[in-house]
Every structure is written in structure tokens, then in C-alpha cells.
Amino acid sequence: MTEAAMSPARRLRNIIGGSAGNLVEWFDWYAYAAFTLYFAPVFFPKGDSTAQLLSTAAIFAVGFFMRPVGAWVMGVYSDRKGRKAGLTLSVTLMCTGSLIIACTPGYASIGVLAPAMLLFARMLQGLSVGGEYGSSATYLSEMATAKHRGFWSSFQYVTLISGQLLALLLLILLQTTMDEADLKAWGWRIPFFVGAALAVVVFWLRRRLDETRAFEGDISGAPRSSALLLIMKHPREALLVLGLTAGGTLAFYAYTTYLQKFLVNTTGFSKDAATQISAAALFVFMLLQPAVGALSDRIGRKPVMIAFGVSGVLLTVPIMTALATADSPFVAFLLAMTSLVIVSGYTAINAVVKAELFPAHIRALGVALPYAIANAAFGGTAEYVALWFKSNGIESAFFWYVTGMIGVSLLVYLFMRDTKHRSLIVHQD
């Protein structure tokens, strides 16, 4: 069925189906970050907690460095075989990676093979997420109507945050129903089994999605997608994606994934309290995404991104400095929530901005590959860089690092075109 003939109900079903699969992908991805505090001692030799967290953060970063490979391979695959095909393949790889983590014995049983298997599983998951981002961003942007494209595409981050939130909620549930010793010994494996099972459900769900009109009709006679074509024909757009992503993705991972560890290692909250603060902030953050996406449909993408850039540059250091000495969970929540309100100016609309920059025949690759490179360089290393600064006694330098990278992206926002008014997504509402 073409998009022009698609009923609103069917279009909504496809958008929900595509974004629901994204939720499971990101649940699997973030389960690693949410449960790091518990399984780090299982996979690595005994040592101080910061050293073990550094080891797991390094593997977390390696997963990010596989994302450009996944973005390249599956971006081309999605441009050539269809958005639906790319989404189905990515969830298969994620399921495999989760099963490996769930089943791998610890260092005490198999020695160095344990962290090696953990590394391999994260590499598979990195391939999966690298392909997932471009395929889902493209699918949601192409499936939505032009008038509400910012609103509907924001559900990519709604589901991304939902996946992270569900991982945290499962952690809270296990923390309240299990002894800490059992959670450290084997309970941390539960979310990886859950993620693998949910991925099987998503595989079936994604097989039932409609393909977008842009893929079915707009790529007829166009050049075949490839990395060379992207570099030769669309270098400016690729560089724009790199630049607009760098500060946004670093801020997102600093304010979300790293926040839980920061609240424990620096502020001094218990693991349970840090998890609850993070979960509460993420829930409100999730609800903000459609509102910010809808705002971009009214006033444009560019003003929203500029608001993020200016606020991030001015407030990151004060917020993180205050958060380091927060004396109550409520104060910590308010500070965390403030930072997430700021970063919503990037997260809610970054997918649609990137999709609107490229023509259909290379859109999935153009969205995915430069994003994945920037994400690997800045988002994937956020935890490791933060912990490195902390281990060297200069933790506040991380706050300035985040500020500086947001400033770089702000320059891109100021000088790029507003994609809402100059979109390359051909659409028949």
C-alpha cells in the first residue's frame, strides 16, 4: 500500500509498530548501562569499583565504535532493500547480543574469556543499534505527514527513553525484591533474557509493517546507496550531521547514562536512590519529546536546536557543579530534570532534521553513518571520559568538556538551514 492511499489509522499503526520495536532495541542496549554497577565485578578481576567501572565503560564505548559499521552496512541495506528490512535485521542482531550476555559465565569461571564474550556481545549490539537509528529515523520521518513530522518523529526518542526507563524500572523492581548478593551473583542476567525474548516479539511485529512511499516510489532510477556516493555527492550534509550531533549526543549521555554513576560515585547517593532519581527524571524527559517535536512543527527546527545550544553552554557547568553537592534526592531530581529539559531541544527533533537533509535513495545511510561516527566519538566515550577525569582528580573538567562540545554544535545550528522549510522528504499527505 502506498502512503498516499494509507488511512490515518493505518499510518498510526505503522508509526506505533516502528517505534515499539525501537523501544525493545534500546531496552537491550541500556540494560548494560543500568546494571553495570552489579555485573562489573562478575566479568573483571577484583579491584576498586572505579577501575571495574572503567573496564565496563570501555566495553560500552567499544559498542559505540561498532555503530558506524552497523550504520554503514545496514544504512546501505535499508536504502536498497527497504526500511522494514533494515529494522528487522537490526532487532535480530540485538537479540543475539543480549542472549550472549545473559548466558556468559563470569571471570571466576572462564577467566579472560568472560570479558571477551562481553565485548563480542556489545559489538553485535553496536552493529544493531548503528543500523537501527538510521532505519527507524527514516521510517518514522517518511511515514509521518509533513504537517506533523516533528511530532511523530519525536517518538524515536520517546521509545529510546522508554527503553532506558524500562531498564531502570526493572532494576528498581529487582532491587526491591532481591537481596543485593543475589542481584550481583545472577539477578543482573534477568534483563538480558527479557530483552532477548522481547526482541523475538518485535521481529514478528516488524515483519507486518508497511513500507514507506519514499522507498517504494521515490528511489526509482536513483543511484544505489553507498558510502562513496554519500561522500562524493552529499559531503556538506554529512558534515552537518556530524556537527549537529556532537554536542547533543554528548549532553544526552552525560545527563542520562552517566548520571546514575555520577549520583553514586560523586554525589554519594545509594545505588537504589540514584536509580530512582534517574528513573523519575527520565519519565518526565520522555513526556517532553512529543511537545518539543510539535513545537518544531510550528516554529521550525532551527530555533529549537539553538535554544538547546545556548542553554547548554550557559547552564551545564552550574547544573553539574550543583548536582555534585546535592543534599537531597528531590534537589538532585530537579537539577537532573533541568538538564534534560535543555537537551530535549536536540533529542526530540534530531532524527527528523537529519532525515530532511537527504534524498530518499541515500537517506537511511546519510542519517545513520555520520550520526554513528559522532555518537561513537562523543556519546559512547562520555562515561569513560567522565570517569577518567574523576580518577585523575579533575572531575569538573568533564563539565567544561560537555559545555565546549555543545558550543561547537551551537555554531552549526546557527548557520545551517531550517530543514522544516527546505525538507527533501517528498510527501503526499
Overview of the molecule:
It is a single chain. By secondary structure, the protein is mainly α. It is about 80% helix and about 0% strand. The chain contains 21 helices and no strands. α6 crosses α19 and α13 runs antiparallel to α21. The protein is globular, with a radius of gyration of 20 Å. The protein starts with 7 loop residues before the first helix and ends in a 14-residue tail after the last helix.
Compute the number of strand runs: 0
Strand content: under 5%
Shape: globular
Please tell me how large the radius of gyration is.
20 Å
What structural class is derived from the secondary structure elements? Answer: mainly alpha
Cα separation of the termini: 14 Å
Give a short account of the largest sheet: none
Give the SSE order as H and E letters: HHHHHHHHHHHHHHHHHHHHH
Total count of helical runs of at least 4 residues: 21
Unreliable residue stretches: none
Rounded average pLDDT: 86
